[in-house]
């Protein structure tokens, strides 16, 4: 479904991705794990075409993404939940959710996906008229996720959604991702939180200083000595 081949990306003159290749099959739940500054966000920004200085191949369902501008990506069926959420604090929960549908243009039917989001996150339904800035961190992450889901994407990409959340909230978030995946959505999840991420994804890649150094089924990575030593402190 998504294929990234030999991707190089740079800011100014310094290259931060040095030939990254990953793929996500239809219906798969894939993760990329790696420490801070490994290049995880850069990889996702390349897929969403938010980075100008990139070379290599990125294709999605046979379409060459490298040839497209960023604003064309959501309508293809790729929704990106950015690092740090970036919700609108002085807008209601519902307006935040609907704002995600902007990329589809006028006339898009957002009512069905909106109802679907409210059934997935009943707490957002209860707070639909409340300013998003008054929600807890976990609820704000649900809004950021809902804003991506309003596009009814085929592929959901998430940049460290668990960052800054309490463990119990991370658990809840991950359960929602598993539920969304079970209903047929493909997911590419990027996280520093290695142990938890490997417990929900099916397959994973380890990104280290801009290079993929390991890949395999999530259970295999979780029991890999190098992963345990470097990321799990075992
Ligand atoms: N906007 C930017 N301008 C310059 N350098 C950047 C920018 N964003 C990230 N970098 C650098 O690129 C490298 C990879 O960053 P990033 O992709 O954010 O890693 P991660 O998401 O894994 O923490 C880091 O060394 C970071 O300092
Ligand atoms: Mg990042």
Brief characterization of the structure:
This protein has 234 residues and is an alpha/beta fold. 35% of the residues lie in helices and 27% in strands.
Give a written overview of the molecule.
With 234 residues, this protein is of the alpha/beta class. 35% of the residues lie in helices and 27% in strands. It is built from ten helices and ten strands. The protein has helices at 40-47, 73-76, 93-99, 111-120, 122-126, 137-149, 167-182, 194-200, 218-222, 225-231, and strands spanning 2-11, 14-24, 29-33, 54-60, 63-64, 78-81, 155-159, 186-191, 203-208, 211-217. The strands form two sheets. The protein has a six-stranded mixed β-sheet with strand order 6-7-8-3-9-10, sandwiched between helices. It has a four-stranded antiparallel β-sheet with strand order 2-1-4-5, covered by helices on one side. Strand 7 (155-159), helix 7 (167-182) and strand 8 form a beta-alpha-beta unit. Helix 3 (93-99) packs parallel to helix 6. It is globular. The mean pLDDT is 94. The site of magnesium ion (MG) has 5 residues, from helix 1.
């Amino acid at each position: 479904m998504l294929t990234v081949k030999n991707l190089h990306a740079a800011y100014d003159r310094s290259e931060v991705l040095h030939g990254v290749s990953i793929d996500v099959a239809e219906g798969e739940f894939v993760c990329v794990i790696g420490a801070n500054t490994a290049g995880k966000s850069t990889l996702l920004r390349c897929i969403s075409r938010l980075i100008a200085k990139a070379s290599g191949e990125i294709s999605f369902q046979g379409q060459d993404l490298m040839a497209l501008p960023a604003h064309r990506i959501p309508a293809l069926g790729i929704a990106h939940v950015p690092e740090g959420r970036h919700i609108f604090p002085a807008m209601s929960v519902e307006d935040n959710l609907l704002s995600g549908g902007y990329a589809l243009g006028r006339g898009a039917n957002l009512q069905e996906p909106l109802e679907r989001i409210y059934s997935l996150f009943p707490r957002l339904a209860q707070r639909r008229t409340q300013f998003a800035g008054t929600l807890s961190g976990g609820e704000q992450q649900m809004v950021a996720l809902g804003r991506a889901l309003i596009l009814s994407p085929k592929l959901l990409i998430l940049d460290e959604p668990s960052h800054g959340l309490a463990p119990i909230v991370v658990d809840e978030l991950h359960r929602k991702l598993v539920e969304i995946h079970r209903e047929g959505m493909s997911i590419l999840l990027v996280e520093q939180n290695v142990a938890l991420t490997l417990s929900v994804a099916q397959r994973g890649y380890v990104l280290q200083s801009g290079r993929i150094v390991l890949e395999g089924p999530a259970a295999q990575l979780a029991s890999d000595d190098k992963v345990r030593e470097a990321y799990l402190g075992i």
